Amino acid sequence: xxxxxxxxxxxxxxxxxxxxxxxxxxxxxxxxxxxxxxxxxxxxxxxxxxxxxxxxxxxxxxxxxxxxxxxxxxxxxxxxxxxxxxxxxxxxxxxxxxxxxxxxxxxxxxxxxxxxxxxxxxxxxxxxxxxxxxxxxxxxxxxxxxxxxxxxxxxxxxxxxxxxxxxxxxxxxxxxxxxxxxxxxxxxxxxxxxxxxxxxxxxxxxxxxxxxxxxxxxxxxxxxxxxxxxxxxxxxxxxxxxxxxxxxxxxxxxxxxxxxxxxxxxxxxxxxxxxxxxxxxxxxxxxxxxxxxxxxxxxxxxxxxxxxxxxxxxxxxxxxxxxxxxxxxxxxxxxxxxxxxxxxxxxxxxxxxxxxxxxxxxxxxxxxxxxxxxxxxxxxxxxxxxxxxxxxxxxxxxxxxxxxxxxxxxxxxxxxxxxxxxxxxxxxxxxxxxxxxxxxxxxxxxxxxxxxxxxxxxxxxxxxxxxxxxxx
Length: 472
What we know:
Structural class: mainly alpha
Shape: globular
Low-confidence stretches: 1-16
Radius of gyration: 23 Å
Number of domains: 2
Helix content: over 70%
CATH architecture of the largest domain: Up-down Bundle
CATH class of the largest domain: Mainly Alpha
């Protein structure tokens, strides 16, 4: 039975209004890592065709340059937590900011295609680190009364980063008279697209010097007085700081450091719940969502749309992504995770099927007839909308809630790794698959969207309204 008694030290835990503005600033500064995550992930969309022509690289080679950043993402995500426990959350943010900055400069001024690939990996390290350290830091500094809403800053920052990257790309293309290789101040347009990320990267680094270290980390290294200062700063001075430090210390002592061995089951290697987490992660990627963010400009140009319009449609798609994410954040606690996932799967399947039908009408010249072109554009936006209002948010909510306490950290790591691998598979395969048969490629994505429906119905349990301790 769960006790309803209020634990010692929680009275007055809610941040005083005088402190809330400062807490929001701290959260927004940390969420800049999410903005860079989204920006760096999708900015390459505007440079794909220019890179292909500049270095005369085929579809397979081009795909590897685009996808290779995901290797850095996986390594950065896997190591960020351990590094943060050793040197602190703020230092990891600063390392990520340096990686983003170096990657932006190197990607804008590459000597050759292999050189560009190296800088893409460096940027991937930054993405992976930002994907882990931002949510962890926000959870540790946010007052409990506001933790859910402040935690959503990270996802909001990611989708805004995606949108801003596409808007910047579109603006630079227009300055270059619609030519991705057009010269601007001595550099080609695509180089400016990749290099502009220096601005938010430097801002992220500067903001990291203006926010405090996590109280949890400070307590873990014995700096209790400094931890109390930060707790007073973010939770208000009405809180009993000695009690709060005691609560955090007690929670840290109770934590079970889960390991890979804890995930092993008697059949099929992993425990069934771990396989469900892996399945959610993999289905999230196999519907082809990152094609919309990495290759949409190339996709629209391949069916006869001019570069300027294709860049504009990439931007409008990213705005739809923001709208869908807001819808998910509003309804995920109202109607539940499973219903949203099923609605999203059905909507994505219909939209992807319409795209497959439209692309099957591609003419010998590569263009789409007027009707099919309109259907393809509308369906592409609907696909992103249904993904964003469901699987884009719901999967991360599920992964944070569905695992038992004793294996949560390790299971989340395995599921996240599966997601990066599936992301890489889709990203690396799309150029070659689209050369083979663009319509057939979308039929494959449609099949995965359809298969996700029975998967959710049979294997995924609702977690809405359940305490984490109830998960088994």
